[in-house]
Amino acid sequence: RYAPGTLPTTYFMDVDFPVDEAAGYAVGNRGVYLKTTDGGQNWTRPCVFDSLASLKAVRFAGSGETGFIAGFPSAQNGRVWRSTDGGANWDTVLVGPSGMPCDIEFPEGPDTGFVADHSRCVWRTTNGGDTWTRQGIVKNDQSNKKGQRHAGNYNHPGQELAVAIPFADGD
Known about the structure:
Helix content is 0%, strand content 40%. It has strands at residues 12-16, 24-28, 33-36, 54-61, 66-72, 79-83, 91-95, 101-105, 113-117, 121-125, 133-137, 148-152, 160-164. The strands form four sheets. A four-stranded antiparallel β-sheet has the order 4-5-6-7, with no helix packed on it. Strands 8-9-10-11 form a four-stranded antiparallel β-sheet, with no helix packed on it. The termini are far apart.
């Protein structure tokens, strides 16, 4: 358990509060995966990833029981992990995106989701992560149009990868 001001030393890459302001998840370098149930006042580490892993994005869909993390273990191809028990346990569901995964979205629940990687490829699942299909390469787009989520291209600072994923109004 981590009290305020005592979080692990790392670069946090993403945070997600999927259902309400109380329960949230954070991921970062050095395999850091944390969970809070009190709005971020205290954090726990429910499971341990490889300490050399770089976890880039976390998303929980629907009720918050099904979650996905995109990143890569040390010196290996990208990965997407899935949890179906609120983040206590994780299984690998996608291995080897052509580049490092940098963003993941499940805009309408736990079935349909997208992963963007640094080589500008987008992968899609329509069955909760059981299978993934490469959707092609997207072009760099400097616009910030409503209805698009931008994933940073960390290999080329200052460039953004625009992945057109429709979101409901207000997102």
